[in-house]
Amino acid sequence: MIHILLTHVGGAHYEDTVRLRQRVLRDPLGLVLDTSGDGARTFLVAVEDGVVVGTVALEENRLRAMAVEGETRGIGRLLVARLEQEALARGITRIELHARITARGFYAKLGYTEHGEEFTEVTVPHIAMAKDLG
Ligand SMILES: CC(C)(COP(=O)(O)OP(=O)(O)OC[C@H]1O[C@@H](n2cnc3c(N)ncnc32)[C@H](O)[C@@H]1OP(=O)(O)O)[C@@H](O)C(=O)NCCC(=O)NCCS
């Protein structure tokens, strides 16, 4: 059974999101996670049998720090849906994000469209994507 919780710096499972983001988003690039912006973010956390298996953050109208452990099994989709619900509850009607090129197809499946040119972030190619909610 998977539960989605909301947390923040210092809250339940926050440190687990740091470890998960380091392992999924930074270790493959040989980089160390920068958590200095975390204070401005609300983290959504997917917990399965007490273990954090996925996370994503909402920062104003931006989707950030999307990371899921292991195989494709619907956790990313679940997290983004919950993030959009949270955004709408805050009166946010458009979500923006920087997608790694390797994840663009994931966001496209969830209704996000690409705009602008590719650019480099954390050493890898990205593309800006956005979705109007509602
Ligand atoms: C990208 C990521 C968040 C997707 O999470 P996930 O839990 O595997 O995604 P889901 O299982 O909810 O997939 C939803 C749909 O997107 C598809 N999908 C998942 N990852 C994809 C990818 N990288 N490219 C294209 N399609 C993808 C799935 O096949 C599924 O399609 P379906 O509904 O037709 O079956 C996850 O693989 C991940 O953390 N990757 C490494 C880190 C990363 O790239 N983060 C994003 C940085 S911008």
Q: How does this structure look, described?
A:
The structure is a single chain. With 134 residues, the chain is an alpha+beta fold. The chain has one domain (2-132): Aminopeptidase (3-Layer(aba) Sandwich). The chain has helices spanning 14-26, 75-89, 104-109, and strands spanning 2-7, 42-48, 51-59, 62-68, 94-100, 113-121, 124-132. The chain has a 4-stranded antiparallel sheet, with helices on both faces. Strands 5-7-6 form a 3-stranded antiparallel sheet. It starts with a strand and ends with a strand. The chain binds coenzyme A (COA). The site of coenzyme A has 18 residues, from helix 1, strand 4, helix 2, strand 5 and helix 3.
Key terms:
alpha+beta, 4-stranded antiparallel sheet, binds coenzyme A, 3-stranded antiparallel sheet
Number of strands: 7
Task: Please write the CATH class name.
Answer: Alpha Beta
Structural class: alpha+beta
What is Rg? 14 Å
Bound molecules: coenzyme A
- Trace the largest sheet across and list its strands: 1-2-3-4
Q: Could you estimate the helical fraction of the residues in percent?
A: 25-40%
Strand residues, percent = 35-45%
Q: Let me know the CATH homologous superfamily.
A: Gcn5-related N-acetyltransferase (GNAT)
According to CATH, the fold-level topology is Aminopeptidase
* Measured distance between first and last alpha carbons: 28 Å
Query: What is the count of DSSP helices, taking H or I runs of 4+ residues?
Result: 3
> Major sheet: size, sense and barrel closure?
4 strands, antiparallel
How many domain regions? Answer: 1
Shape: globular
Q: Would you list the SSEs in sequence order as H and E? A: EHEEEHEHEE
Q: Per CATH, which architecture?
A: 3-Layer(aba) Sandwich
Low-confidence stretches: none
Please state the average pLDDT score: 97
